[in-house]
Design brief:
Blueprint lengths: L1 H6 L1 H26 L3 H24 L7 H22 L7 H19 L5 H8 L7 H20 L1 H9 L1 H6 L4 H23 L4 H13 L5 H26 L3 H33 L1
Length: 285
């Protein structure tokens, strides 16, 4: 496989992309989980699917070629993020209602555009569940740019994001522009989902942003530790998923998710065993 990595450009593009999304997915996912916004990733992934289907429709039915499924998905994801934020303002007492509204709209648009694009095909299947050969050089450059933006923003606004994640009211009182920071955060989420879909698949992308974080939370004692360990778990899942996808000719998305599930189960099991041991030791004392 190492020889093939040196020989085939598409494999290098895929593995570089995989290493990047293994970092930025759990990195942003830590904030999403702490803020109890895990479902927002599902909502935006369905909107992204609508954008992908829209791009496929344009490719097949019109002469418009500059809006590819990848960039169509990215555009729809950002629009969906903006609409969720607007709905939070409309329904101030029920801010979470914006998530199912956008999710439902994404599903509806996906069905319409998939039908107009003559239904499911191999391209759409790759977008749904990921592929080891789907990342072009242009896609790679775009994903690198998104990764740089995400990491830079989190470094620059780390304190504000942490404060906003744990106590939004305190953040506002402290002089933090909570509205602007949250808007920036949700746009970053949309971009990460769009970047991650090439490897993991749009229907499974939320798993990479939540499962490694859930596993890390069982083993760590601080926010920074959770962030770092979740990125480690994300990288392990992505690398195993890509290797198995290459050797067995299967979409890597499913394997990435299942490896993440196994890591989560091991973390829960390990934590439970140590809890029982500590209780037993305390009892004997």
């Amino acid at each position: 496989m190492l020889a093939d990595l040196l020989t085939f450009d598409f494999l290098r593009h895929t593995f570089i992309t995989g290493l990047l999304i293994g970092i930025i997915g759990p990195l942003l996912g830590t904030f999403i989980v702490v803020r109890r916004l895990s479902l927002i990733a599902d909502a935006l992934s369905h909107v992204t699917l609508a954008g992908i289907a829209f791009g496929l429709f344009l490719e097949k039915k019109t002469a418009i070629t500059f809006i590819t499924p990848f960039y169509g998905g990215m555009g729809f994801s950002v629009i969906g993020a903006v609409l969720i934020e607007k709905l939070r303002e409309v329904y101030k007492s029920y801010q979470e209602i914006g998530i199912p509204i956008i999710l439902s709209a994404g599903v509806g648009l996906s069905v319409i555009f998939i039908s107009l694009a003559d239904g499911f095909n191999n391209d759409l299947f790759n977008y749904l569940f990921g592929s080891v050969s789907a990342v072009s050089l242009t896609d790679l450059y775009t994903i690198i740019a998104i990764s740089v933006i995400v990491i830079t923003v989190i470094i620059l606004f780390y304190k504000e994001l942490v404060t906003l994640s744990f106590d939004e009211d305190h953040a506002s009182i402290s002089g933090i522009h909570a509205k602007h920071i949250h808007f920036l955060f949700i746009i970053l989420t949309a971009l990460v989902i769009a970047a991650t879909m090439r490897i993991v698949g749009v229907l499974l992308v939320s798993a990479l942003m939540t499962l490694p974080v859930a596993a890390a939370m069982r083993l760590t004692k601080s926010f920074k530790q959770t962030m770092l360990v979740s990125m480690l778990f994300g990288e392990i899942a992505v690398i195993i998923g890509l290797v198995t996808g290459y050797y067995f000719s299967i979409p890597p998305g499913g394997t990435i998710v299942m490896v993440s599930v196994v890591i989560l189960l091991l973390a829960i099991f390990k934590n439970s065993i140590f809890s029982k041991i500590n209780k037993g030791a305390s009892f004997h004392e």
